[in-house]
Amino acid sequence: MARETPAPPRWVVGLDLGTTNCVLAAVDTRTEAPTIAVMGIPQVVAPKQVEARELLPASLYLAGADEVGSLDLPWASGRDLAVGVLARARGADVPTRLVSSAKSWLCHAGVDRSAPILPWGAEEGARRVSPIAATTAYLAHLRDAWNAAHAGEKGGRLEAQDVFLTVPASFDAAARELTVQAAKDAGLDRVTLLEEPQAACYAWIDATGDAWRGMLRPGDLVLVCDVGGGTTDFSLVAAEEEDGALALRRVAVGDHILLGGDNMDLALAYHLRAALAAGGAALDVWQTRALVHAARGAKETLLAAGAPDATPVAVLGRSRKVIGGALETALARADAERLLVDGFFPGLDADARPARDRRAGLSEMGLPYASDPRLTAHLAAFLARHREAGTPTAVLFNGGVMKADALRARLLTVLRAWCGPALRELGGIHLDHAVARGAAYHGLARRGRGIRIRGGAARAYYIGVETAMPAVPGMPPPLKAVCLVPQGTEEGTELELPGQEFGLVVGEAAEFRMLGSSSREEDRLGTVLEAWGDEVEELAPLVTTLAWPEHEGTVVPVRLRVHLTEIGTLELWCVARDARRWKLEFGVRHTEAAR
Question: Which of 62, 270, 302, 518 is the most exposed place for a label (fewest CB within 10 A)?
Fold first, then answer.
């Protein structure tokens, strides 16, 4: 008797794991007309006070012993940490106990992301956690909140649902895999990753219903401009005719840019620090960190609709003169708009490029922030790099930063100067909720109940192959780049390089060099590059020993097979003539290319 196929989970859940905020949206697939709803997330908002909010700040506060008992949640007591509103607020007062921007640290290849390194810069002996542990804490909070709300529902636990977790489009395989690991550490095994700009498009499709087909036509090119708390993502989505119907295809994504609301908070904090210094108050490092968090609150107040002309800003005093008191100043709305609009969104020509200042020989370890804060320069470079895709005819804004009318208006002005006055804004989405709602819609679409955006690998990936040539003193053999994954390859695809064998070193340590390109859309499987310029960059190499006992140092003829997994990991299988196989797994992370 044939075994019955189990019914799919009742709920499809979209989870926006943001740098600044997390949002959870869900849809009950067993209803006739599935409707996506954003869930209120219970969290500690003040000591011994729990409220449900639609946004869960991605802030983790590592509490002191005297605070245990005041951070309890309906499902847990005796907690020595907090996630959410109170965590962000307490972090402004005690920044050395606050973990923030864990998502950015999770994709930073320059640190050990499984090591307890956060809060970064905390004093020796302070309590710390790893970027993976911090991410797991956010996901565990969301899991527990969901499970508490569905406690009486059979099979209703979040662990049993289809969860679609969003990541930046610019996340490479290593960052994606670490995100999946954090989800598994939180007990979430049924996780599928989705790019945030695609999720924003899905949210727009859901919000407009069938009307989206009348808003786009074949040949349109949509720029998705996603500026969040810690990162900026650009993507291009093309509207095409397919079998007589309108279809969407993601054709390009930008690089991972650590530039966003956090940078804006810092700019405002420096402005406020100068104002305090003018009044005779010099801030130490601890107070400056607190001022950055205070500036974030001021920014959100002043850029909101109906904002006041100014808002007060206070930082706890540390000197003898202000024991028990605070240092106070105010931030004017006009100053905030000037600093943010002109500083981050200046009007530039389309040929502008991000500045590459000469770097100091030594610098502090930390996040690899973009050196040029001008978002419009980064956007100009992105559009120029993908000029072959066409000129955008529409723009879809996403991310909390773009909620500010002044910032959207300036960016629209710049884009219309570059792309023509007919460029239009696609509105109608809730910028805080869009990614989570779009992820849930994508889950529905995978079940045949919605429109799917075609995409695939955002970049082409290549393996470095050493050229066979006689040894020359002082000159290493040239490296060729062989295309393993053409740009646009769908996740889950398995490929085999046709015809050619390569020599694989087994039994001793060897270096496998991976390269990537976001602009060589023409390269196909097996394309060989003898030379390349800035359009191809070398990624982090993999140094490993492929075991074959008693055959140390042997070079084995192999064919190459590639599997691009559902989470974006690139598995390279080296298959010998006798069917013996070795697997290499790449986290194809962007690094500074050796130029």
Answer: 270
Cβ atoms 191, 387 nearer than 8 A? no
The Cα 595–Cα 590 span in angstroms is 14
**What is the band of 321 on the pLDDT scale with cuts at 50, 70, 90?**
very low
Please name the residues in contact with 131: beta carbons below 8 A apart, sequence gap of 6 or more: 102, 105, 106, 108, 111, 113, 114, 117, 118, 178
214-246: string of b/e by CB count within 10 Å (b at 16+)?
A: eebeeebbbbbbbbbbbbbbbbbbbbbeeeeeb
> Where are the CATH 3.30.420.40 domain residues in the chain?
11-192
pLDDT at 64 over 60: yes
Contact present, 532 and 478 (Cβ < 8 Å):
no
Strands 162-167 and 191-195: parallel
pLDDT over 70 at 352, yes or no: yes
The CATH fold of domain 261-344: Actin; Chain A, domain 4 (3.90.640)
Rg (CA), the chain: 25
Domain at 460-586, CATH from 1.20.1300, 3.30.310, 2.60.34, 3.40.50: 2.60.34
DSSP symbol at 6: P
Q: Where in the chain is the domain with CATH 3.90.640.10?
A: 261-344
- Asked if 143 and 188 touch (Cβ cutoff 8 Å), the reply is yes
Nearest-CA neighbor of 453 among 188, 189, 212, 232? 212
Separation CA 393–CA 325 (nearest Å): 54
pTM of the model: 0.79
